[in-house]
Write a structure and sequence with these properties.
This protein has 635 residues and is of the alpha/beta class. It is built from 21 helices and 10 strands. It has a 7-stranded mixed β-sheet with strand order 3-2-1-4-8-6-9, with helices on both faces. Strands 5-10-7 form a 3-stranded mixed β-sheet. Helix 5 packs across helix 8 and helix 14 crosses helix 15. It is globular and about 80 Å long.
């Protein structure tokens, strides 16, 4: 066991090395410089073209607003564009992720694992059938290997419903009985939900973290294959500077049309984008909070989360803790990797848009909280970029709406020769008049091109790799086209929701931590229409104004208006579970077959374990082995 002085020297050395990285980009960030060089040069070129068009007859206040909003929104989509282009190249030429990161590769089938790893699943008021079925799938896969005795599993419950807690215990007990000797399954229920998920994990690290060199964080709907877990442990053993390795989980078992489309989208585009990200992430990967392996001591020593000063929504507990934990690990000198080539990592996602946006609301507030950390002392520059990009994922919606509103006022002013609303004192006429706004179509077309190229590249890559027959190729093309149309309809709906989140937070709104809402029941028509009425009415009024003054411009705005105007029917129809049988029979919107599940013929949410007899001793956690997890500071 290392002495306190040795630990202190190691921490200070890591911090010193990290400070050197913060000051300037090192060798590990050359790819990031290349990536953002491509992003900035592309953005600068398009902005130059746009400014030449806008300012051809003089500069107005409204034109400056339009150019500012366009520069940020176009820059955001350019990041996705170059991620896809680089990812396409890496996959096409079969570049190995371990070589890309100079990782030492373990043997394909290591004869022995020298470490002990904990699989920890924090839960709070979740559906115990679904949760235990997911954990069972992971453990049953793991028990088929010869390394299962190198793993223990913990269900870390924060459930405060006594009846639900009792059901959890019964299911854990039954699952524990089904496991072979060598792999242990433990259950613990906390009396207080202090710190929510991050506090739950912190409690584990302080009580039992000393017993395990690594831990794998699982969400209540996470599933991982045993072979993937063993490979992750082997990589961590072979690379002692690695503090975290993040996999790229794919959605599975979606039953509604909404879920199936998102599942198809993730399977088609996710790998390409992830490969592009891992190219410039290098050893500075982000962390998504689950399906990742972490060096337990590194996490315990450096990831004790503080509360932000001030009141919620921007003060108080850190909501999106995963980004912050990645930054703290990096600050302590550890390497963080994302390896998109690793298969066998899965998750479930909400199957209707309302459950989806409820989850997005907490993520949005957590991402805005991160803006407070960008200027924190000693953080790596890449973590600052991760914080900024996470927030931009939601702030971009506000910018898009601002761009659309200002563009509408600008175009209608050109069409009618009048200024609108509060803009009249500030609107200075340029050379545009009548229908002379048509040159502005060039930036619009370029934006559409940048948005659609990632989808096209992903389709081409799958078509090349799968070598599909003509009929299969046609179905893949039709599925891709359908997903693209749905994405065009869904994007402006989410834009309105995200914007409402932002303004809600700015006005002091708070969020509640709720369990994930995964269910097989469709959203009724009344809920669909009533919860989207404001968006629909707003867009009908907006489009009517444009139609009155400029019908031609309305044609260009239709992709923005069609989705929100039809939001009620779209949400109602896409939550129907009956579509899954139809899509399966036609091989439509299908993702690559997952052998892991086909062999078991299992849908985790429909698994019905038998009711066991209660044997408390079978799942009681081991004796505590205390370790202090110090609370970190951000100065």
């Amino acid at each position: 066991m290392e002495s306190t002085d040795v630990l202190k020297d190691r921490t200070m050395n890591n911090l010193f090395k990290n400070k050197q990285r913060v000051v300037k980009f090192g060798n590990d960030n050359k790819r990031a410089l290349l990536f953002f060089g491509l992003v900035f040069s592309t953005n600068a070129t398009v902005l130059y073209l746009t400014s030449r068009i806008l300012f051809s007859g003089g500069i107005t206040s409204l034109e400056i607003v339009i150019l500012f909003c366009f520069s940020l929104t176009f820059g955001w989509v350019t990041i996705s564009f170059w991620n896809a282009v680089i990812g396409f190249i890496l996959i096409l030429f079969k570049v190995e992720a371990t070589k890309l990161h100079d990782l030492k590769t373990p043997l394909d089938n290591p004869s022995v694992l020298t470490s002990k790893t904990a699989l920890i699943m924090p839960v709070r008021n979740e559906d115990p059938k679904r949760t235990m079925a997911c954990l069972s799938a992971t453990l049953q896969s793991l028990t088929q290997s010869k390394h299962c005795d190198s793993f223990d599993a913990y269900v870390l419950s924060d459930t405060d419903d006594n009846s639900l807690c009792s059901i959890e215990k019964n299911f854990v007990c039954e699952l524990s009985r089904s496991l072979p000797k060598g792999i242990n399954l433990y259950y613990r229920n906390r009396n207080h939900n202090t710190g929510h998920k991050a506090g739950n994990i912190r409690d584990f690290c302080q009580k039992w973290g000393k017993n395990y060199e690594f831990m794998v964080i699982l969400d209540s709907d996470s599933i991982m294959e045993g072979g993937t877990l063993i490979e992750l442990v082997s990589l961590m053993e072979s690379n002692p500077n690695a503090g975290l390795i993040q996999t790229v989980p794919l959605p599975i078992n979606q039953k509604t049309l909404f879920g199936r489309i998102l599942q198809f989208s993730s399977a088609l585009y996710g790998p390409v984008v992830a490969w592009g990200q891992t190219f410039w992430y290098s050893n500075n990967s982000n962390y998504w909070g689950h399906n990742a392996i972490i060096r337990t001591k590194a996490f315990t020593d450096s990831c004790g989360l503080p509360n932000f000063p001030g009141r919620p929504p921007f003060g108080g507990e850190i909501l999106s803790h995963d980004f912050v934990e990645a930054a703290l690990l990096k600050r302590a000198g550890w390497d963080l990797f994302m390896l998109p080539h690793l298969k066998g990592s899965y998750e479930m996602i909400p199957e209707d848009i309302f459950a989806y946006v409820r989850r997005e609301r907490r993520w949005a507030q957590g991402s805005l909280q991160h803006l407070r950390l960008i200027r924190s002392k000693d953080l790596h520059i890449m973590n600052r970029i991760h914080f900024l990009m996470g927030a931009m994922g939601y702030l971009s919606s506000v910018l898009w709406i601002s761009l659309l509103v200002s563009s509408t006022a600008y175009i209608l002013s050109l069409e009618t020769g009048k200024t609108f609303f509060f803009l009249e004192p500030y609107f200075l006429w340029s050379a545009f008049s009548g229908n002379s706004w048509s040159p502005l179509l060039s930036p619009l077309l370029i934006t559409g091109f940048v948005l659609l190229v990632p989808k096209a590249l992903s389709f081409i890559l799958v078509a090349i790799q799968s070598k599909k027959r003509p009929v299969q190729f046609s179905l893949l093309a039709l599925s891709t086209l359908s997903e693209t149309i749905f994405a065009i309809l869904l994007a402006p709906i989410l834009m309105f929701y995200h914007t409402s989140f932002i303004f809600g937070f700015l006005s002091g709104g708070k969020i509640k931590w709720n369990p994930s809402d995964e269910k097989d029941t469709a959203v009724c028509w009344k809920t669909s229409f009533s919860n989207t009425a404001f968006i629909t009415i707003s867009c009908i009024a907006w489009s009517s104004l444009i139609l009155w003054y400029s019908p031609i411009f309305l044609l260009w705005m239709l992709p923005v208006f069609v989705g929100p105007i039809l939001a009620g029917p779209i949400i109602f129809l896409t939550t129907k579970t009956g579509f899954s049988g139809w899509t399966n029979s036609l091989n439509f919107l299908t993702t690559p077959r997952i052998i892991f599940f086909d062999n078991r013929n299992r849908d985790p949410r429909k698994t019905k374990p038998s009711t066991p007899k209660w044997i408390e001793a079978a799942i009681e956690p081991p004796p505590e082995n205390p370790r202090v997890m110090p609370t970190q500071t951000f100065l």
